[in-house]
Design goal:
There is one protein chain. The chain is of the alpha+beta class and about 280 residues long. Helices cover about 35% and strands about 20% of the residues. The strands form three sheets. Strands 1, 2, 3, 4 and 5 form a five-stranded antiparallel beta sheet that branches. The chain is globular.
Length: about 280
């Protein structure tokens, strides 16, 4: 989503250091260390491929995550090579030097074969992931999860490796979001930010020349009224004349562009694509 949003506003997409940006956005502090995001996932072996499943929402509790990374650090952590640490709902790998990691988060790979997303030709990455998978096999947390009917955490997805860029003042629209990756990028640009408020009242005072807003991913699992309320709030803002153009990016790849004059086209039919999606919601 960060890459798509940055392209929409004409910014270059960073190719490395996404985990360091996420850490920066989460803590408000820029770290000079090399790090990668370390996200717990469930791998499912099928006939010809291994499929990755992201653990979303409340599928992995903070207490399980805390206990999991505490034990992984005790079993595998090495101050000379790397350290694993949990920070709130997220976790990171800090290493003494760079290694190849996946370029995208588990949410991008979710439900897909992981082969094409894996970094190639880095024995350090492959060895570390193998060690993590062995440590997770029959882990007490996974035994408890199995009794509760939950999927096991049988691997750690390492992605976005690199260091944070030096802060540089760049022209960028204000941001309305709590997403740490977005906030980290905006901090690297010295951009203006506010937290997500759930509606767009007063947005013209905060961002008279336009803005970027990122709805929490939890809304994907919320009642449809929550998303409808957000879209209705945007419609009111456009009808009032505060926005001349609106670009909506959805996590399933859908992109919608609306201009103020489109509000007058009452004769236009609803897109069959949207009707089809709504029918299966």
């Amino acid at each position: 989503m960060l890459a798509r949003a940055l392209r929409a506003i004409g910014h270059a997409v960073p190719s490395v250091g996404l985990a360091a940006l996420r850490f920066w956005g989460q803590t408000g502090e820029r770290s000079g260390a090399w790090m990668a995001a370390a996200d717990p996932v469930h791998l499912e072996a099928r006939l010809n491929h291994v499929f990755l499943h992201a653990l979303r929402g409340d599928e992995l509790s903070r207490s399980d995550l805390r206990a999991l990374f505490k034990s992984l650090q005790e079993m595998l952590g090495d101050s000379e090579r790397f350290a694993l640490a949990r920070l709130g709902p997220l976790a990171y790998l800090r290493a003494d030097g760079p290694m190849a990691t996946a370029a995208v988060s588990p949410s991008v790979v979710d439900g897909l074969p992981l082969d094409e997303f894996m970094p190639a030709g880095d024995s350090a990455h492959d060895l570390l992931v193998s060690e993590l998978q062995m440590a997770l096999h029959d882990h007490a947390i996974n035994q408890a999860r199995a009794l509760r009917g939950k999927r096991s955490v049988n691997s750690i997805w390492l992605w976005g490796g690199g260091t944070a860029p030096d802060p540089e003042r760049r022209k960028i629209p204000p941001l309305l979001a709590d997403d740490p990756l977005f906030r980290g990028y905006w901090l690297s640009c010295s951009g203006v930010m506010q937290t997500w408020k759930g509606n767009f009242e007063g947005v013209s005072d905060f961002a008279p020349d336009g803005f970027v807003a990122v709805a929490p991913q939890e809304l994907d699992f919320a009642p449809t009224d929550a998303i409808t309320d957000c879209l209705e709030s945007l419609r009111v803002v456009m009808k009032r004349g505060d926005l001349a153009k609106l670009t909506l990016l959805f996590r399933d790849g859908l992109r919608i562009e609306i201009e103020k004059k489109d509000l007058l086209r009452f004769w236009r039919k609803v897109s069959p694509l949207l009707v089809e999606q709504n029918a299966h919601a």
